[in-house]
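Side project, low priority. Logging it here so it doesn't get lost.
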Amino acid sequence: MDIEDFRRLFAYDSWASQEILSSFRSVKTPPVRSLTLLAHILGTEYVWYSRLNRQASPVAVWPQLTVDNCEQHVIALERIWSDYLEALKPDGLALEIPYKNTKGESFTNTVGDILQHVTMHSAYHRGQIATDMRAHGHTPAYTDFIHAVRQGKVG
């Protein structure tokens, strides 16, 4: 994968999070678990971005956020990832990043593997949100990647 592939994936990621927010706003109150999972997606993106920059994360892995807070973070993260990918040089994808996970265990992964993980992690939890929304009688957001491509949301 190259940087342009990651730009597409992060454009998709942001679009999908916006779709989740729209589905939350279409119901009186989104299920607690669904909102918790979206907050986790966003918190985790900050954690990984911070690891890439060798900084402490400004947001917890499992933050407690409102729908409005989530919307603010979706907008902020779209800019953060866009700026990060804009500044990333092609050889930067192979750069190895040492970090500690939330259990304090040390690991090293490449920037490319971390970026791919971020988008796959988000997609995984969006599937859980869809299941939870449906279990509560709501229509979940349609966040499949191919749907975003068909709508012209991803180049």
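Brief comment: Strands lie at 96-100, 106-110.
Revisit when time allows.
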